[in-house]
Amino acid sequence: MEVDPVAFKEAARAAWERSAAGWDAHTPAVHRWLAAATETMLDLAAVGPGSRVLDVAAGAGDQTLAIARRVGPTGRVLANDLSPALLALARSRCRKAGFDGVETMAGDAESLRVEPESFDVAVCRLGLMLFPRPVHALRAMRQALVAGGRSCSLVFGRPDRNPCVAVLMKTAVAHAGVPMPDPGRPGGLFSLGIPGALERIHEEAGFREIAVSVVDAPFELPSAGHYIDFIRSSASPIQQILASLDAGRQQAAWDDMRERLEIFRDGDRWVGPNELLRVSARR
Ligand SMILES: C[S@@+](CC[C@H](N)C(=O)[O-])C[C@H]1O[C@@H](n2cnc3c(N)ncnc32)[C@H](O)[C@@H]1O
């Protein structure tokens, strides 16, 4: 399916700018959700003291801080994101933790301009699948790496392994009376969950030693309501689907989604099944 990448990214930038404060407020929950997956991503990329790391689509900087901690005072961290508001929050998160040296660069990852061969590692946590032309971003990441440099990214896996998103989508389109979007559409949450997609784009970008593995990352929260709050605070496609409804009908849709998500209640906690894919590669 064709998308206009310029218009798509402008809409994404505006949506993330609007959601920046809400996404930032959910950082502790995102941190708990992705802590183990993030550490493995950084292990596989061999991030350690002195590493120079490019963090693509860094958002509010949760993984940026983890990288800064690992690389220490002799390393370098450059965080990129489409949203300047999110990057300002990432910078402030790192400064508050004592990492004043973390650099930021606002802009589109698909046309990243950094000095060639100036990084040992490039990572991208839950960003790559949101780019309409991810191979462009991977080429830019590869170009930023020294020979033998490593890249590691996390993306959403198959839709059937991420049933909470399916519940949200199905319920939202039913309320809005619109067709279900194609799960594999470029820039969609599941665009790189299709078997073979990550290998193909990494090969196309010129990477070698490409390895993809499945990561089980259940999202544990106190309740389905907390999950709905998280989704409402992020730049998710659900808001777009519901945009044509008035406030009352939107609220009814959110209430319906929350009720349906109760199937994932487990005693006094709520655990949303979630499967990610991790891809590591070398220049
Ligand atoms: C799901 S959030 C992940 C943020 C962060 N990496 C994390 O895991 O907490 C996706 C991020 O991708 C960024 N993004 C989307 N499209 C982008 C693009 N074309 N270039 C750079 N960043 C982009 C958004 O602004 C947002 O911060």
UniProtKB/TrEMBL annotation:
**Which GO terms of the molecular function aspect are on file?**
methyltransferase activity
The protein in question is named: Methyltransferase domain-containing protein
| Gene Ontology biological-process entries | methylation
In which domain of life is the source organism classified? Answer: Bacteria
| Entries under Pfam families matching the protein | Ubie_methyltran
Sorted keywords for this record are: Methyltransferase, S-adenosyl-L-methionine, Transferase
